[in-house]
Write the structure tokens for this entry.
Amino acid sequence: MLRITGRSFPSEVAALEGFSRSMLRGASYPGIAPDEGARTTGTLYSNVDREALAALDRFEGELYERCEVRVTTASGERTALAWVLREEQRHLLTGEPWDRERFSIRHLREWLARGTVS
């Protein structure tokens, strides 16, 4: 978040029901898409302002659309924003689960470089 927006925001673990996360064909990063019965965990950032959202939109690019979703945190259920793979791009999903540790070891440095705030 810091590398993309230039700022830090409060965060907590959240679960997103009804979505799965898997690798994209030819990419080192995943996409999320609706998937009945699936559950995806991630990080929920709070108090993200319009400027930061615009930076995140630019970073995520045309493959994704910002969507309002419901997530569950330790303090309960709430509305959040997520960048979901556009329906016309879902053919790119491989079904291979994304592995955070493998990504960190093999690809994190190059991935962060493309999102560095200037």
About this structure: Residues 50-60 form the longest helix (11 residues).
